[in-house]
Amino acid sequence: MSSTATAKKQPSSGPVLDWTAGHGPVTGALSATTGAFAIATTGAATAMPPAWALAVGAAGALGHTVVGLRVRNAGRTLATRAASWLVGAGWTTWAMTHGPLTWAALGSLATVGVGIGAAARSSALFEEAREEEAIAAERRLVAAELSAERRAIATEWVDRIQRVCSLTVRVLGVEMWETGTGFSLDAELPPGGATYAKIASESARLSADARLPHGCNAIASPGIHQGRVIIDVTTVNVLEEERTYPTDYGPLSVHTGIPWGYRTNAENILAYLREQCALVVGPTGSGKTNMVHAILAGFARAEDVLTWVIDLNAGSAGLPWVLPALNGQIQTGDGKPVRPGVDWLAGTFDEAMLMLETAVKVAKQRKMGYQDLLSKANTDLLPISSRIPQIMLVIDEGAEILASADRQMRKMAEKILEVIRIARAMGLRTVLTALGATGSVLGNLMIRREAKVRVALTGGETEGMDLSKMFPGTRGLRVDQAPYKGSGFMGTPESPAALFKAWRILPNQIRDITAATSERHPVLDDVSVKAAGPAYARRWDTDRTAWMREQAPGNDTDAGGYGPASGLKLSALNEGVGQASPEDEMLARFRAEIDAEFATAPDPHAPTEQAPSAAPGGLNLSALREEQQDNSAQQAALALLLAAGTDGTGASAIARALADEYGTTRQTVVGWLKTWVSDGTAVRVGEGTKARYVHHRHTPGPPPGQ
Ligand SMILES: Nc1ncnc2c1ncn2[C@@H]1O[C@H](COP(=O)(O)OP(=O)(O)OP(=O)(O)O)[C@@H](O)[C@H]1O
Questions:
Q1: H and E: helices and strands count for the chain
Q2: Which of 79, 144, 294, 460 measures 20 to 30 Å from 329, CA to CA?
Q3: What is the bridge-based pairing of β-strands 218-222 and 453-457?
Q4: Which ligand 1 atom sits closest to the C-alpha of 502?
Q5: pLDDT computed for residue 113 by the predictor
């Protein structure tokens, strides 16, 4: 109803003549002939003067020609279209005079239609060919200019190599880098046994002769066969500038490589770690910590990697990936709690040993548990995926652990080497960092064989930087080529050692990546979870993460920039227990008391020498290990107290609820309740058998003593 009304209201605008409307040869001809036929029949019926048809045809021809000129149609196309209009108009005029409904009129109209179609088709083909030719001509022009530039470069470098190396090479190709930061020459060496090495050894002189800017160089490497050489020439120094970690935090995979930084040609360099371990050497101040963060960022982005970090230097490498999540400072888009950016962080000797022992157990269990899968896939290499993730163990200053003479450290070193030795096929690999490329690290056969992804961050440091040991067989690498923080050399089995730089990554990016990747992290496969047991399942328990609180910002740490520590939100990780930070704080206080007691007592598990990791004032986890069971029961009791709301609950009810799982007695619960009343966590209501305990959150007003 309303649409009819609207249609009625619209003023009649008559036939719309769209001169730009597109037509193919068939639709064009059809449109022309049916249009002409319609005009002729209506014209004849209404006794329209035939000259009108001619006038319309002339206007049509003119209209199409004007539009055609505007869109730069070929003259031939313009002529075809104008002729179509005029022929159509001629026929219409004739048919209106002689009657359109005669065999002669209809036959000639059909002929006109076919004619217009054929002409349109031929003009369309011509138009297409003309366009293609124009594009090709443009390309030829660009190519000619480019090849003129390439020819000039080739001639210049043939002369230069002759001058500096006394070799007459023939340049077969010049490839300009897409990044615009240099080019590569592919050249044939002269007959007589010249090798690429002769040019490689003159890299510095060639760079000087070419007047390359500082930080740029000409590096020769083997060509397609021994008589050919590739010379990469950088003309823009990308190592000098600071580039931040790319903000595309899209998913990655261990199979397709993890970007660790960029080359002098500004291209990403990828680390392929499915089978390889890695060694990152960087003296203090070279940008090693930053590089570790860039590495952790890549692992966090991967859909098939779980990262376990050992950092005995108070966990500073891993903390920025854990604290913002545990402190509840970041959230996913839909407000869910964020999983830490690393899957396990060990900052103490005991926790690190636990992690390494777990890694060995997981590797062994995977070997047995996945026999079927391996035989079905006809491989001895466990198919890593998001369902069976690779475990990347990042051990900061791990190389120093390997080189240590300390008895405890030697124990740990053995475990690290065991993981490296047994776990390649089962998807556990390590990234070790080192302050220096010491002989004792690189002298280790296992490291030499398994850790072929290597990074030497120089940052201008020359001390302890033996590049020939880090990258044996590679010539022409000099520390002074990479004087910038975060820059150095990187070599992998896929990409020979050469200059590179790590991206600068700032704490806010770490937080962003942690949030962006939270739901992407895989979970440990069942086979591994079973092998890992409680050591893994309880890795975020309050007592095991208490040391992190000690290191939290606000307690004067270098983890820097993460806001005030507001208590770890471990409840997000211990799903089901449902505790919030006040409880955690209380538990920490409780454990601090135990620690104060135990720290003075001889610890049967304690190292003979204090491990460098043991943070002063940190919890004595060895002593606490035996309390683990009690602590879990106590957490559960607290959860029950909280759940009881304003009604509160009693010691007997709590003990009954815990008896099956923990075997907790009423007497123990009474002890806890007393402590909680005295520290303000709970309030006692009523007397005697009516006595109940209410969590302070459910009592009106502030808790006593506050
Ligand atoms: N990739 C990089 N690009 C630019 N600047 C960087 C880069 N990496 C590090 N830096 C600069 O170098 C400084 C030191 O970096 P970082 O803390 O990572 O070094 P480090 O080798 O771990 O030193 P330390 O052992 O003293 O902590 C940073 O504060 C930053 O200013």
A1: 24, 16
A2: 294
A3: unpaired
A4: 1
A5: 72
Pick one of 1.10.10, 3.30.1450, 1.10.720, 2.60.120 as the CATH number of 575-698.
1.10.10
Element (H, E) at 171: strand 170-176
pLDDT at residue 110 greater than cutoff 80: no
Q: For the chain, what is the mean pLDDT? A: 79
The alpha helices in 210-348, defined as continuous H runs, are 288-301, 319-326
Contact criterion met (CB below 8 Å) for 287 and 516: no
What's the CA gap between 260 and 257, in Å, rounded? 9
Q: How far is the CA of 560 from the centre of ligand 1 (A)?
A: 14
Backbone angles phi, psi at 427, to 5 degrees: 80, 35
Q: Give the torsion sign (CA, 123, 127, 128, 132).
A: positive
Task: Give nearest CA residue, ligand 1 atom 7.
Answer: 486
Q: Which of 243, 263, 290 to mutate to test the pocket of ligand 1 (most atoms within 8 A of CB)?
A: 290
Cite the annotated binding site for ATP by residue number. 282-289
Q: What pLDDT does residue 36 have?
A: 61
Q: Which residues line ligand 1 (CB under 6 A)?
A: 242, 282, 284-290, 485-486, 501-504
pLDDT tens column, 62-89: 766 666 665 556 666 667 667 767 777 7
Residue nearest to atom 13 of ligand 1 (CA): 287
pTM, entire model: 0.59
Q: Where in the chain is the domain with CATH 1.10.10?
A: 575-698
CA of 507 to the centre of ligand 1 (A): 13
Binding site residues, as ranges? 282-289
Residue minimizing CA distance to atom 16 of ligand 1: 287
The per-residue pLDDT for 26 is: 63
pLDDT cut 70: percent of the chain above it: 75
Examine the pLDDT at 382 and tell me if it is beyond 50: yes
Statement: residue 576 has pLDDT above 90 = no
Question: Does the structure show a pLDDT above 60 at 583?
Answer: no
The pLDDT of residue 593: 42
CA end-to-end span of the chain, whole Å?
74
Greater pLDDT, 101 or 304: 304
Task: Report which ligand 1 atom has the smallest distance to the Cα of 286.
Answer: 21
Distance between CA atoms of 526 and 660, rounded to whole angstroms? Answer: 26
**Nearest Cα residue to 77 out of 132, 43, 125, 110:** 125
User: What's the topology of domain 258-515?
Assistant: Rossmann fold (3.40.50)
Check whether 609 has a pLDDT greater than 90: no
Mutate to test the pocket of ligand 1, among 485, 500, 509, 510 (most ligand atoms within 8 A of CB): 485
Region(s) of the chain under CATH 3.40.50.300: 258-515
Top mutation candidate among 237, 289, 461, 490 for ligand 1, by most atoms within 8 Å of CB: 289
Please give the distance, rounded to the nearest whole angstrom, from the Cα atom of residue 485 to the centre of ligand 1: 6
pLDDT at residue 181 tops 70:
yes
